[in-house]
Amino acid sequence: MRPILMKGHERPLTFLRYNRDGDLLFSCAKDHTPNVWFADNGDRLGTYRGHNGAVWSCDVSRDSTRLITGSADQTAKLWDVQTGRELFTFRFDAPARSVEFAIGDGLAVITTDNFMENVPTAQVKRIAEDPDDQSEESLLVITGIKGRINRAVWGPLNRTIITAGEDATIRIWDTETGQCLKESDKEQGHQKTITSLSKSADWSHFLTGSLDKSAKLWDTRTLTLIKTYVTERPVNAVDISPLLDHILQEEIGGVKGHFGPINALAFNPDGRSFSSGGEDGYVRLHHFDSDYFNIKI
Amino acid sequence: MAVEVATQKIRWGELEEDDEGDLDFLLPPRVVSGPDENGFKKVVEYRFDDKGNKVKVTRTFRVRKIARARLSKSAIERRSWPKFGDAVQEDVGARLTMVSTEEIVLERPRAPGSKAEEPSASGDPLASKSGAVLMVCRTCGKKGDHWTSKCPYKDLAPQTEAFVDRPPTADGSGPPGGAVKGAYVPPSMRSGAVDRVGHDMRRRNDENSVRVTNLSEDTREPDLLELFRTFGPVSRVYVAVDQKTGASRGFGFVNFVHREDAEKAISKLNGYGYDNLILRVEWATPRPN
Predict the structure, then answer these.
(1) What is the ipTM of this complex?
(2) Beta carbons within 8 Å of B149's beta carbon, 6+ residues apart
(3) Chain B: closest CA distance from residue A250 (Å)
(4) Residue A122 belongs to what domain range?
(5) CA nearest A273 in B: which residue?
(6) Which positions make up the signal peptide (chain B) (predicted)?
(7) Is any Cβ of chain A less than 8 angstroms from the Cβ of B100?
(8) CB–CB of B102/A284 below 8 Å?
(9) How far apart are CA A63 and CA A222, in angstroms?
(10) Which of B66, B115, B118 to mutate to test binding with chain A, by most A CBs within 10 Å of its CB?
(11) Rounded to 5, what percent of chain A is helix, strand, coil?
């Protein structure tokens, strides 16, 4: 395959996200401006100017109209996807790390780092239909986690929130009560910081990558360990193909090209392409060759 | 995406003197032709470069469908969205998006078809693989199952002649073959090889061995045996032969059972004329290793 190189960022990439239709790709980097690209040919559609710090993550609503970004400038912002207009700013007293819209886009979970005296939190915000009605009030604040939360995502039916981070523990929280329902087993779980977490297409299981040089596949409901994928190097980013069942525990291939570490990975929802974002500031968009789809294990 | 960028300079003398201000109206309009049936699209543009020279830029694109994307209605609508933010002022030359000139292949960590540990339970692994014939194990001769280095029978295979002269190491100290995954274990250190190559091999090679040099080219081992057996029982005769041409390389070795016989042979035959050549016979010095 001949990857498409997209040089829209001046600093290392931090996060990549496709919209649901898979035609737009959002990229976040340590420079302050997230970009949006057409996912088929790599043309840049626009930029979201307004943050004043590294942008750590983003999420796009199901209808691709709203974008939410979390930034080291201690804010999370809502954007209009089409025009790049800033709609709302959530202010925090610590950098915002992970953001995700809930099913239905009526809620969003935003995590804040442990910063100065602040403990890390995961906060649930209501996302108003009309940006004028938007408020900064948190519906729920999850605390009691030691170490930075690198990723917080919604569980099935918005009933739970799954967090993972520096303390190498995956936790499932009840969104009604804010209680911790489950914790990953110390023996089975990761030994070092969890860097990334990615859900399968149907949310039935999710994959975590950790600096302990492994990625682990978990059942979302029961938090049981399904598979462990051991690598030779720390895992920075993980994603699950929505198309093929690669629950094989066997490495089927490597893709080279970036200069330096790769910080972000995302599969196109159609499963036919994926993009990677590196420390080199490039996004590389890979459309799989046909032989990928014919791999026999 | 530009496959070829051809610039053609217009001689500066042909240009008007007063090239101040915006002269873009002087330029011929942009011409777009294609895409033709091969998907080639040609765009011819004219612009002024930094020095005021008129430059013709011909860019040839190959339009191809990269992904078979079944776009939803809203996705098609998004296609026509106007650019915003920094993407608006993006000039054509910025080339933010490029197709890699390098072909990136999905690197398989193992040869397709070879298994790390557990063999696939689903029947015969050979049947399903095309091109497996290329993979022939030199040790056990099995086709398409594994490479020679991965052969499970390699320790059982008889050692080839080439390995015999390797200095054997202390018995049993070497790691058993295949214990360290992927690490190279010399044949002499593999378990199974140790005993065979062992001490008696060393004695045969190094003890009471006499080197004979300046042999004529058509001297063969029986001739040498004929010559040396008169001094006592001979355990081995060897004439070095060039592997390519088959001709003698002019030296050989004779091993005697008794050291005294060897001494006698050296004293008698050194300087002996044999087949028009004067033989040189001496103790074979043990190899430095």
Answers:
(1) 0.78
(2) none
(3) 9
(4) 13-243
(5) B67
(6) none
(7) yes
(8) no
(9) 30
(10) B66
(11) 5, 45, 50
State how many domains chain B has. 2
For residue A81, being part of any structural domain is answered with yes
Do B98 and A4 make contact, defined as CB atoms within 8 angstroms?
A: yes
Size of interface A-B (CB pairs under 8 A): 125
CATH of residue B238: 3.30.70.330
CB B158 within 8 Å of CB B196: no
Which residues of chain B have a CB within 8 Å of the CB of A22? 69, 75
How does pLDDT run along chain B (289 residues), one tens digit per residue?
A: 444 444 455 566 655 555 455 566 677 788 888 777 777 888 888 888 888 788 888 888 887 765 555 667 888 889 889 989 888 887 666 778 888 888 888 777 665 555 444 333 333 344 334 444 466 677 676 666 677 777 777 666 555 444 444 444 444 444 444 444 567 777 666 665 544 444 444 455 567 888 998 888 888 888 888 888 888 888 888 888 888 887 788 888 898 888 888 888 888 888 888 888 888 898 887 655 4
Q: Do B85 and A287 touch (CB under 8 A)?
A: no
Which residue segment(s) compose the domain that B216 sits in? 205-281
CATH classification of the domain holding A95: 2.130.10.10
- Please indicate whether, in this complex, the C-beta atoms of B102 and A2 are within 8 angstroms of each other: yes
Partner residue opposite B71 with nearest CB, options A4, A23, A42: A23
User: For B35, phi and psi rounded to 5 degrees?
Assistant: -75, 140
Nearest to A84 among B85, B107, B128 (CB): B85
Chain B contact set for A7 (CB, 8 A):
96-98
Classify residue A10 by its DSSP letter.
Answer: S
Sign of CA dihedral A231, A232, A235, A238: negative
CA-CA distance, A157 to A151, in Å (whole number)?
A: 18
B187 contacts B174 by C-beta, under 8 angstroms: no
Domains contained in chain A, number:
1
A253 assigned to some structural domain: no
Are the Cβ atoms of B108 and A83 closer than 8 angstroms? Answer: no
Please name the residue that has the structure tokens 């008698």.
B268
- Report d(CA A293, CA A252) in Å as an integer: 11
Inter-chain contact B69–A23, Cβ cutoff 8 Å?
yes
If you measure CA to CA, which chain A residue comes closest to B85? Answer: A47
